[in-house]
Design a protein that fits this description.
13 helices; single chain; mainly alpha; 303 residues
């Protein structure tokens, strides 16, 4: 049991690091748009450069034969890449376009709820009353941190809301699919295949180069950094963390540290204002992560 607890601790730290890295997504998106990108092209850069990075690393680390997958591994990588990368990015991009960043952020952070449902259906993972309360605290905190309780949205697109919920569903499914994908021991091969399938999906459905006037060196540089740091390196920690975790419902709660980091990136770099209500939301998110981690450790001690 000590080994299980240690694995969960290391896995939790790796998921936390992933969330911190993802907190800088907004920075790269803003810099890419300033350099002439579109939301679709930014999303494409994220997966395309991550694919190139992971493929090159896998080639040097494991050799060409490591890219030969079993039928089962191929199917899981295809599902994970298309659903949790391709469909997720597509739905989130449409939601941002149709409803705005605030509503899109709120709908995205329904992911812990979807994850809890999927984890129960797939792994029979029960949360219990206390952990359900923690899940609600996390959801409320995320909503407050993202909106400051300002819900005066003038126009709300029903299709945009549906796309936002789909982004939450596919994001919440990522840890579950990742558990199956991780049956392949070569981590960077997994990442390479996932991002390859996501890249193909986005080329077909997002048409990322539409509306792009010029491809500058600055645009390509930020695109490469966005893919390598935010996706390639982040997913290295993410998939290894999932492999170590015994409870998938814990993953999206820990990863929600992203919204806290994103808020402070906005304040420190772009001088975006935060009021007391935002800080209350941030505090609730942090509290939910601590409580969920403590609840998980207590449960493991009692097993």
């Amino acid at each position: 049991m000590d080994k299980t607890r240690n694995n969960n601790l290391i896995g939790s730290i790796e998921i936390l690091i992933t969330g911190i890295i993802w907190g800088f997504i907004g920075f790269f998106v803003k810099e890419l748009i300033a350099a002439g990108s579109t939301p679709a092209l930014s999303a494409f850069f994220r997966v395309a450069f991550a694919f190139l990075f992971a493929a090159i690393v896998a080639l040097f680390m494991y050799g060409p034969r490591s890219f030969i997958l079993t039928k089962e591994q191929f199917i899981w990588c295809l599902l994970d890449g298309v659903l949790t990368q391709g469909v997720y990015n597509y739905c989130y991009s449409v939601c941002v376009e149709k409803t705005g960043v605030a509503i899109a952020s709120v709908l995205l952070y329904t992911s812990p709820v979807f994850n809890a449902i999927i984890s129960y259906l797939v792994f029979k993972e029960r949360l219990g009353f206390k952990r359900n309360i923690i899940l609600v605290i996390n959801l409320i905190g995320s909503i407050i941190a993202a909106t400051a309780l300002d819900f005066s949205f003038k126009t709300v697109s029903a299709f945009g809301i549906l796309m936002g919920l789909m982004s939450g569903l596919t994001y919440g499914a990522a840890p579950v699919l990742g558990k199956y994908v991780n049956r392949n021991p070569n981590l960077f091969v997994v990442i390479a295949y996932n991002e390859f399938f996501a890249t193909i999906f986005m080329l077909i459905f997002l048409k990322p180069f539409d509306g792009v006037k010029v491809m500058t060196s600055k645009l390509l540089l930020y695109g490469a950094l966005y893919g390598i740091l935010i996706t390639g390196i982040a997913y290295m920690f993410y998939y290894d963390g999932i492999k170590r975790m015994s409870e998938m419902s814990l993953v999206p709660v820990i990863a929600s540290i992203e919204i806290v980091v994103a808020a402070f990136v906005g304040v420190l770099i772009y001088k975006e204002p935060l009021n007391i209500i935002n800080y209350i939301g941030i505090a609730l998110v942090i509290l939910s992560i601590v409580l969920m981690s403590l609840a998980s450790r207590k449960r493991l001690k009692n097993v």
